């Protein structure tokens, strides 16, 4: 019984942490918890993820001020992979875990 209470408490704490992280990510541009480089990387991820947007020259130039070409390529690959995985899951009716919400 004690083990169940500990597990449930951990699950509750994990869920609360997920909600807090989600709240931070929704308004990441204004959060003091992210560096300028992290804020730009999150904006870049949003631009790649949202099919109605594009990575414009200004955003890419800001990425280049914070990251070298290898890092931008790696970030782009990871973001693209996650987006491809999401589309794959959608095709097979695998439900979203809710980590990204369209703004």
Describe the structure.
The chain has helices at residues 2-26, 36-49, 57-66, 69-91. The radius of gyration is 17 Å and the shape is globular. α2 packs antiparallel against α3 (57-66) and α2 crosses α4. 3% of the residues are buried. The protein contains four helices and no strands. It has 103 residues and is mainly alpha-helical.
Give a summary of the structure in a few sentences:
With 103 residues, this protein is mainly α.
Helix/strand structural class: mainly alpha
SSE order, one letter for each helix or strand: HHHH
Instruction: State the shape.
Output: globular
Number of helices: 4
Low-confidence stretches: 1-12
Measured as a percent range, the helix fraction is 55-70%
Radius of gyration: 17 Å
Mean pLDDT: 79
Number of discrete domains:
1
Distance between the termini: 42 Å
Let me know the number of strands. Answer: 0
Strand content: under 5%
Profile the largest sheet.
Answer: none
Give the secondary structure arrangement, pairings included.
Elements: H1 2-26, H2 36-49, H3 57-66, H4 69-91
Helix pairs in contact: 2-3, 2-4
Please supply descriptive tags for the structure shown above.
globular, 103 residues, mainly alpha, disordered N terminus, 0% strand, 70% helix
């Amino acid at each position: 019984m004690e083990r169940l209470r500990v597990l449930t408490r951990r699950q509750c704490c994990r869920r609360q942490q997920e909600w807090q992280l989600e709240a931070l990510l929704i308004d990441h541009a204004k959060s003091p918890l992210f560096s300028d480089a992290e804020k730009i990387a999150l904006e870049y991820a949003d631009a790649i993820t949202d099919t109605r947007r594009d990575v414009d020259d200004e955003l890419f130039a800001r990425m280049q001020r914070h990251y070298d070409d290898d890092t931008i390529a790696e970030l782009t690959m990871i973001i693209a992979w996650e987006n491809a995985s999401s589309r794959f899951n959608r095709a097979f009716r695998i439900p979203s875990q809710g980590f990204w919400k369209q703004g």
